[in-house]
Design goal:
Number of helices: 22
Helix content: 25-40%
Structural class: alpha/beta
Distance between the termini: 25 Å
Number of strands: 17
Strand order of the largest sheet: 1-2-3-5-4-6-7-8-9
Amino acid sequence: MRQILLIASVLLSLTITGTAQDPYKVMDWKTETTLRSYLLQAMHQQYDERRQSLAHALEAPGNLAEYREQCRQKYLRLLGGMPAVTPLNAFVTGRIERIDYSVEKIIYESRPGHHVTSNLYLPAGKGPFPAVLIFCGHEMTSKATVSYQETAIMFASNGFAALVIDPVSQGERVQFTDSAGKRILRGSTTEHTLLNAGANLTGSGVVAWELFDNVRSLDYLVSRPEIDPDRIGCLGNSGGGAQTTWFIGYDERIKAAAPCSFVTSREREYELNGTGDGCQQLPYEGREQLEIADYFMIFAPKPLLILAGRYDFVDYRGTVDTYNELSEAYSVLGATDKIRLFTCEDGHGISWPKQEAALKWFRRWLCNDTTDIIIDMPVPEAENDTWCTPSGQVTAFFQDEVTVQAVNLKNVNDRQEARKHYMSVNKPGEVMAKLHELLAISATCSKINTANIASREYPGYTMEKLIIRREGEVPLPCHLFLPDNKTVRDTIVLRLDHRGKLAVIEENKFVTTHINNGRAVILADLRGMGETAEKPEANDPKYYNTEYHNAILSLHTGQPLPAQRVKDIFSLLDFISSADDLKGLPVKVIASGQAAVPALFAAVLDTRIASLELSETIKSYAEITQRPMDKDWFSLVVPGIMNYFDLPDLVAMRPDLEVKYFVQKNDGNEK
């Protein structure tokens, strides 16, 4: 008992004594930027390779045609497919009459039971009229936002029809609502992000959802007899600029476009401002070397007007770089007059000068008309006067409204039989190969290099501070505790706590219990945890994830965060196998939180792990769709995994593996 108390007191002293630096810390640099630096370097390398490919493409029209087709094919693969086209069941719920235009309030189904709300601005007269789709930014007022109403009125007053669409999670289409239709989350960016996590599991996402909504919106628009289907354009601001970008790279019916306050370099934006919400994320976009400019390359040489504010938070240097790339491409295609950058001396948003520039652009290219436009000060409607539903929410108007989260859950559940079939017809080696593919993990790894930073003898044990390195990977800080005389009896305990090593050291009893039972203990910080965890302020709480930007950047570069942590665990296992006093002994992994799923993956792939104890984690990926408002889901997401297998399917491949799950109690202990 005296020895246990002595060891405990020494461990506790590690957390409260020592130099000015944290005494438990292993690495001596500003480690909270380590993972982000690693990911940015990976992204830069991917875009360096893209620049080489683009330079070759710009050498000749034939090269550029091949490059554009490659971009199109990559884009289609990343979208993950679209649902079947079903009846729109459109109906008009109201009409506003003004002197030179009217506004119809329209509802239609983009998918069975899922409704889209929109306003159609029609000029006076019979038509057929040229038309534009107007995609809204992230304002919760959406189609009722003053600047979007002004834009639509300006177009309608000058002979254009304009369909303004509520994006999912905005306007009348909030997905997370109470029984009265009141939203229960902070706003659209939070909803988009949470919905995106569930959709990613089956290889889709909010980008694809919004894109399909907009495709169906165009289907409705061209079905109207007042509309000329051969003269259709689209424009959008901010998040609507993103929708415009995705849309014109997909739907060939668009003849001219004007994205506003969005166009920049993805590479610069991610480095300078971090990643955005779920409607602006296509997993693996960087791995496929797709830049924002490439969606416009697909659209080329159709007329493209880029609207920008010189003082926008969207990086203006990236806007200019993107415009310059596109100008070169349009020059190769012999269409230099069809690309233009309009810069306004303002910031974010579709201000009056940008609205006017867009109208002139569409009149020129859809009407062959360069005469002066009519500019009257538009009088926007009150928000509730634009509503298509009585209460302003489809979830309140339609009692059986099908939400995005319900579709995500259904998609996961509907694939259960397909997952069973996949596991039954594929051999274990083939399943392992698919898991390696989804995790983007090579079957072979370079050798590790271990640096012993410090070693100290204590009564009953030795403690060593180690850094385990593998070429091209994030270094791993560890504490190794060995019993007296370095005699390890039966098991090596590898503790991977999402809170970091210090949290375990402060518990005292964990290390002492195992040391006194003759077991070696390794406390390690997987990348992004403990010493390499970002500071809390690095991630906006609206994303519901403590490491959101790193998680999204990981997906962008083609390295899901759980997969990177699997590689870290492999490095730890290789260290154990290389140590004379540890190799050959069974390894028990105790992992919590965001470290638990990587530990499970590692155990499935590597039989050196004999047992698992997991806490504060999921047992099935279906839980992400069952509890879509929980936090930190993107730390666990592996896109497309639920098309093949779930966690229990993988565990069943290791009948010799002992797996125990624990639930964390409020007092911090486990049960």
